Amino acid sequence: MLGKCIENVRKTTPLVHNITNYVTVNDVANVLLACGGSPIMSDEPDDVVDITSICGGLNINIGTLNKSSIEAMFLAGKRANELDHKVLLDPVGAGASKLRTDTAVKLMDEVHFTVIRGNISEIKTLAQGSGTTKGVDADVADAVTEESLDSAVKFAKDFAKKSGSIVAITGAIDLVADADRCFVIRNGRPEMGRITGTGCQLSGMMTAFLVANPDNLLEGAAAAVCTMGLAGEIGWENMQDGDGNSTYRNRIIDAIYNMDGETLDKGAKYEVR
């Protein structure tokens, strides 16, 4: 079922506008190309309305904020809403500082997001309107585990209902939920946490999956999560003696580049609750 979602990306080559952080911007562009999408990066307020108008989706990532990029996020988000484009929010580090938290909360108030994607600490911060996180990583106390899974699934569905957005919570166990259904996904490798930006890459790729699968948004979001996790598994299997995290990053991108629907359907590990 999910394999068709990546095939639709490759068939339609969705154009995605990214207002993303400068730590990972190059990798986000490369992952979008690898999955079959087409990236545009622009965060200049005088440019973003025109740029987002010609795209099908908008990926907003708050990882490295400044006053100019914040203005651009609101301008692009509102324009994307006017055009009924798919819009994703990646609230990187929400809870780590007042600026990040306030910006993410205000964006949610003024822009409708198709998907909100982050780690459990970031998503809890948005649900509560305030919070604390350990930098841009999830707090250990918040982690989704087998023991906390039932309550985490309920939290994801409840927040999806409250926000009107699909909620994607990524970690050791990934959750992708709307108000009624939640994909519980167990793809990936712990070593992916040693690479900067796999979450940022996923947000860019997920936006392309949303644009390419407008009638199956929940499945499209879940397929993107499975694609990234499975690519992490395949990339790790291909590691050689002497390879490190830089090589692993490239192997993940290569695995996405070579992913097809059959591979995804065979390798995706998920259940729906």
Features:
single chain; 273 residues; alpha/beta; nine-stranded mixed sheet; 9 strands; globular
What is the percentage of strand-forming residues? 5-15%
Task: Give the beta-strand count.
Answer: 9
Helix and strand composition category = alpha/beta
Radius of gyration computed on alpha carbons: 17 Å
Estimate the mean pLDDT confidence.
94
Proportion of residues in helical segments: 40-55%
End-to-end CA span? 16 Å
Low-confidence stretches: none
Please describe what this structure looks like.
There is one protein chain. The chain has 273 residues and is an alpha/beta fold. Helix content is 51%, strand content 14%. The protein has helices spanning 3-12, 25-35, 45-53, 67-82, 98-110, 120-128, 149-163, 198-212, 217-237, 245-257, 261-267, and strands spanning 15-19, 38-41, 57-61, 86-90, 115-118, 166-169, 174-177, 182-185, 270-272. The chain has a nine-stranded mixed beta sheet, sandwiched between helices. Helix 1 (3-12) crosses helix 8, helix 2 (25-35) packs parallel to helix 10 and helix 8 packs across helix 9. It starts with a helix and ends with a strand.
